Amino acid sequence: MSTAVYIAVMAGVTYLIRAIPFTFFRRKIKSKFFRSFLYYIPYAVLSAMTIPAIFYSTGSIATAIAGTAAALILAYFGLPLIVVALAASAAAYFADLLFF
Question: Exposed (0-12), middle (13-18) or buried (19+): which is 47, by Cβ within 10 Å?
Fold first, then answer.
């Protein structure tokens, strides 16, 4: 198929994903349970996409655990995202040097 068809299908799917909630939920959602459920969906999706990538990106589970531990500790203390990302990368790199 041509690239234009792929782009058109992607555009249609993206539009439907964004338009369907507006057609079904015209009024404000009043259910406290449903609103709190919807509040956590972006975090759950981001975690579901990120966690497997973390553990399969380094090629070694030990280096992935070292980087993840460094990231969790620094994020717990509220450091900026760039610091957390760089420290996690450095921890995984140095763990790779030590273990392999």
Answer: exposed
